Recover the amino acids of this structure.
């Protein structure tokens, strides 16, 4: 299952609840990236991009090795510049059954959450202003959601009803059987 994609939309928070509720392991690209920061150090934006691409490889390897999983990442969307976002092409392979949980909230709410969260300094979050984050989120919003697999939209502007989301995910899995 692919997780939601918008920065600050509540994807990690939602995924930490959904993993246990679905009895799926959680694979979070940020956790992998933080491990790389710890082992290889923190640097500038170019270094962060290098480690982010390395974490994409590890993330995909862990995801493809898992029988089932909640995958959390900021996914690359068509129309984005080449560098940002985790590549998605491999999710289209027929052996994968994907339900895309798309967190929906106002860009203003997401920008505030993005700037309030505490992540490893290697992410370089503190280098962004509210206006910059909001502009990026509005640009992402214009691109639309990730269009892979059945999509379940979840309003994360408030605490979602976990039971309803889990039910919707199970329904989506039933509607899109594995293709292999």
């Amino acid at each position: 299952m692919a997780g939601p994609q918008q920065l600050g939309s509540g994807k990690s928070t939602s995924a930490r609840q959904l993993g246990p509720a679905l009895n799926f392991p959680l694979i979070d690209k940020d956790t992998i990236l933080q491990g790389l920061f710890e082992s290889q150090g923190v640097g500038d934006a170019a270094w962060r991009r290098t480690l982010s691409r390395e974490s994409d490889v590890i993330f995909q390897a862990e995801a493809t090795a898992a029988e089932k999983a909640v995958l959390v990442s900021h996914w690359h969307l068509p129309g984005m510049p080449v560098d940002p976002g985790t590549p998605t092409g491999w999710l289209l392979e027929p052996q994968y059954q994907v339900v895309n949980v798309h967190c929906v909230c106002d860009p203003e709410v997401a920008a505030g959450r993005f700037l309030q969260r505490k992540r490893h300094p290697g992410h370089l979050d503190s280098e962004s202003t509210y206006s910059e984050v909001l502009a990026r989120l509005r640009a992402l919003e214009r691109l639309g959601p990730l269009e892979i697999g059945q999509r379940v939209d979840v309003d994360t502007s408030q605490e979602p009803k976990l039971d309803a989301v889990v039910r919707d995910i199970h329904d989506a899995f039933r509607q899109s059987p594995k293709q292999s």
